[in-house]
Write a structure and sequence with these properties.
Elements lengths: L4 E7 L3 H11 L4 E8 L6 H15 L5 E3 L13 H4 L22 H11 L4 E5 L4 H9 L7 E7 L14 H4 L2 H8 L5 E4 L1 H4 L3 E2 L1 H10 L1 H12 L3 E2 L3 E3 L3 H8 L4 E6 L1 E3 L10 E3 L11 E7 L1 H13 L3
Parallel strand pairs: 1-2, 1-4, 2-3, 4-5, 5-6, 6-13
Antiparallel strand pairs: 7-9, 8-9, 10-13, 11-12
Helix pairs in contact: 1-2, 1-10, 1-11, 4-5, 5-7, 9-10, 9-12
The chain binds beta-D-ribofuranose and calcium ion.
Length: about 300
């Protein structure tokens, strides 16, 4: 059997982050070496505690390192209106497993973990890209040991933070620019597929009956405002994990993705140049479409592999 693929999840839990983390931790194909946190859905101390609460819940001893509290340039807003003030409203978690918290900053922990690994590591950012951008600038030598970056962020169409900008990119456009200009292999699972990877009530009800994890996810889903429980909840961050585990569910296109920094109304937009107007070399593989039925079956199967 092929060895497990080494990944680092950079995250801001966040209800859809919690689901993505759970699926990754119980996948037979992934070895989660490290979880790093970044301010995004809520503040840095809360998201870090949330990651540690999830690890206690799942019974997994993965090290956690706390990352950046703010974007490279601008002060940041949060998304507590979507995930609740706690970032994971709806479930009464046991206290965070603080013994898993490293003393190192997320950027240093990522650097060390990547360099110590005999295999190449895949980075899976599912929050704003601040930590990843600093890692690439501070330690450019890591690039040789990064397999690819599979991220949730961006949009081919309209946004969910601005008219044309997606939340993770809009919160730190400069960081996104650094990452998309890095020449590393990048896979972008953006809003477009997230909007189709919907969890409808019948799936939520099914998930609830599967196991303790499904029961916890159901409680979070009842509070999650990323979509609606009745018409479909958006599992954005699981789309990045789904790419790692079942890429055949996606229609993929290699193209250039530009990050808008200066637009007075479009800052943080991802210009996915499908028609090559900008005459730039491709810098990303973009998930253009997803087979929603395949995602649904994959999702149920993945949750049933959890505890
Ligand atoms: C992204 O924003 C956050 O609210 C979600 O966790 C996801 O990573 C979707 O735009
Ligand atoms: Ca997220």
């Amino acid at each position: 059997m092929k060895e497990k693929r080494s990944i680092i999840i950079d995250t801001d839990p966040g209800i859809d982050d919690a689901v993505a983390i759970g699926i990754a931790l119980f996948s037979e194909k992934l070895d989660v070496k490290l979880i790093t946190t970044v301010a995004g859905n809520v503040g840095i101390d809360i998201v870090t505690n949330n990651a540690l609460k999830l690890l206690r819940f799942f019974g997994k001893d993965v090290p956690v390192a706390k990352g950046c509290a703010a974007a490279l340039i601008e002060p940041r807003e949060d998304a507590s209106q979507v995930h609740g003030a706690s970032g994971m409203d709806g479930y009464d978690f046991d206290p965070p497993k603080t013994e898993l918290l490293l003393k190192e900053h997320a950027v240093n922990a990522m650097y060390r973990t990547i360099m110590e690994n005999s295999e190449k590591t895949t980075l899976v950012p599912i929050g704003p890209l601040t930590n990843i951008a600093i890692l690439l600038k501070l330690y450019p030598e890591v690039k040789e040991k990064i397999d690819e970056i599979v991220l949730m962020g961006g949009t081919l169409n309209r946004g969910n933070k601005g008219v044309m900008s997606e939340f993770n990119i809009a919160l730190d456009p400069e960081a996104a620019k650094i990452v998309f200009s890095s020449k590393l292999k990048i896979v972008m699972a953006g809003l477009d597929v997230g909007l189709k990877a919907l969890i409808l009530p019948e799936v939520s009800e099914k998930v609830k009956t599967l196991n303790k994890t499904g029961d916890m996810f159901y409680a979070l889903f009842k509070k999650y405002r990323g979509g609606s429980f009745q018409t479909g909840l958006k599992m954005y961050d699981s789309c990045a994990i789904a790419y790692l585990l079942k890429p055949e569910m996606y229609k993929l296109t290699e193209t250039f993705v530009g990050i808008e920094l200066n637009g007075s109304m479009t800052r943080g937009a991802t210009l996915v140049d499908l028609r090559n107007y900008l005459k730039e070399e491709p810098n990303a593989t973009v998930c253009e479409d997803i087979d929603a039925e395949m995602f649904k079956s994959w999702f149920i199967e993945s949750v049933s592999s959890c505890i």
